[in-house]
Amino acid sequence: MTAINHPIIGDAKSLLLPPVLPLIDTHTHFDAPVFDGDRMIQAQQAYECGIRHLVLLGYVARHFKRLYVTQQALTQPSVPQSSVPQLTLPELTTQHSLLPHAHIAVGLHPFYIDQHTENHLSQMAQLIEQCRPLAIGEIGLDTFTPAMKQPEMLAKQQYFFKAQLDMAVQHQLPVMLHIRKAHAEVLAILKTHDYDAHLLGGIAHSFSGGEQEAKAFVKLGFKLGVTGQITNPNAKKLRRSICAAVAKYGVNCLVIETDCPDMTPVMCQTSNYTQSALGQHADNEWHGAEGQNRNVPSNLPWVLLTLSELLNVAPADIARQLWQNSTHALQVDWSYPGLN
User: Fold this and answer.
1) What is the pLDDT of residue 3?
2) How far is CA 270 from CA 4, 235, 262, 290, in A?
3) Average pLDDT score over residue span 278-301
4) Which domains are assigned to the chain?
5) Distance CA 229, CA 251 (A)
6) Which positions ≥6 away from 243 have C-beta within 8 Å?
7) How far apart are CA 53 and CA 47, in angstroms?
8) 7 Cβ contact list (under 8 Å, min separation 6)
């Protein structure tokens, strides 16, 4: 086993990754411009770390096309040799199959609710008809800031959330939930809506609620998305919530994700900058993230390893279970691969 050296921040333990295991990154923003300079290199490194599938999540209508452009690039890469110093162009061409499979979810994110219009809902509905995505997301409610808590703003969020749940039911697609400081409100909507996660799948992305809320989402049929936040020893509430859900429902209630370029595992951080890049810029939300602990898909094994230690389950066992959980949540039949 080869040790991978990462700088250690705070109280994080110095850990060694297990041998490469097949993983699914269920939530990324790998289409963000912050990856434009080295996307193919990062994709290859992710594959070498075991990442076999990654999901690209949409959040505003004007960037939906970018998702498909990124997916196409990962399917049929064509990049100048100068931008890939480690490989010659012929080498990249012959190895293009050694990249994770990219999949798309489209959604209108609640944090950007002031930018969304009825026309965006129509565009999204038309896109789903023309290019059926893997899922709908990320969608939900967000009352993280005082402005987002204002009655008019919250009402608009609820309207768009329900409209997108309707699309999911119409097209029989799973949803990827974004929830910040609004778990009770999201649960209330889900309990009265026709959307049934037991039948359609779904993920509560980057879960941040309490123990009872964790169990409530799992009871409704959702998997809990676990990010690099779990690697922070100070994330005690999150760790308690995950452990409580697993104690009641088993490890099959979890999936893992990077949410890159956010949520960098602590052992991969190069600075003490911890603020989310979400919403900092209107058209390039992660501008400057290179200096802000940019997360990458190849960091996903650190989430796996931390869960393995937290739950006292062998890495190979939890990796196989997480794969099954992810395919169930996304309603796909991706076989668990063998690795050479």
Assistant:
1) 31
2) 15, 19, 13, 10
3) 71
4) 23-281+289-330 (3.20.20.140)
5) 18
6) 310, 311
7) 9
8) 267, 268, 269, 270
